[in-house]
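Before we proceed, please read the two lines closing this message. Tell me what the token row says about the fold.
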Amino acid sequence: MDKKKLIGMNLAELQDVAYKGGMPRFVGRQLAEWIYAKGAVGFDEMVNISKKNKQWLSDNFEIGREAPVKATRSADGTVKYLFAAGEGRSVESVYIPDHDRATLCVSSQVGCKMNCYFCATGKMGFKANLDAAGIINQILSVPPRPAQGQAPMNPLTNVVFMGMGEPLDNFAAVLRVIEILTAPWGLAWSPKRITVSTVGKLPQLKELLDRTQVHVAISVHTADTTQRESMMPAQKAFPISSVMRCLQGYDFSHQRRLSLEYIVWCGVNDDIAHADMLVKLIGKTDCRVNLIRFHAIPGVELHPASEERMIMLRNYLNQKGITATIRASRGEDIDAACGMLAAKS
């Protein structure tokens, strides 16, 4: 029988593990420190836990760390990692270095139920939710420990839930991982280092906003509701107007940030009329707009907007008092850019 994994457990659960093994509950806190803060991959590394207790832990549990099974490096330094996800399935994570920053784009599901027309993950259909262990393992295992003589990669500074899946469709596991990332007994990160991207799944979005202080990114892509419904079926269940009304109840004027994601397609949403619809949708909501280049995927009859159109939209939105930026594409040559993850391997 498979041993239960310790990664993905919170402090109370690790304390219960210690208690079950006849150890003081403070050993649960030591386990949390070794697993999360120190990144231990084996019980033998836990020097402040007795040999007897480590043996009991090893007999009954596993830490649960699993290294990526494959890494593919882009010409721009981006690295795509393939992780096993059980039952022959796999997911991908993308490591994006940028000067002194290193961001990991993590997956929360194998496939996705949202079925957005322009997304390779959506074309897979939904296969499975990752549990908290499967999500936090990506974060703990990237970048890998360097081999002897190999220069270390920059440690992670940020995590974005923008990989495979709709994070709020696997809300309990994502919330658990945010707890591990931000708790003093976990990685003790500031929530400002974490961004959760969503199509706008209500009411989980409201609960995320109420229970955490992480940044939020909303996949808008077009403010034309009829057009959005034809490309993003989630529009029918979670109209973007309802999503924006929900967001208006929160303060994004200080450290917490709200971003609207807007993939720009040639002849679809790259004109002034669509920009004006977006301005109207935003109203007085404090946010920024990320204009994203479309990355072609098989079977999708859409084309990226020209650089001139991207710049025109950015400048027009800026003139309307909305901060808009053009997101740099990373990892397109290895199918690691926005909308391209499909775990083909």
Notes: The mean pLDDT is 94. DSSP finds twelve helices and 14 strands in the chain.
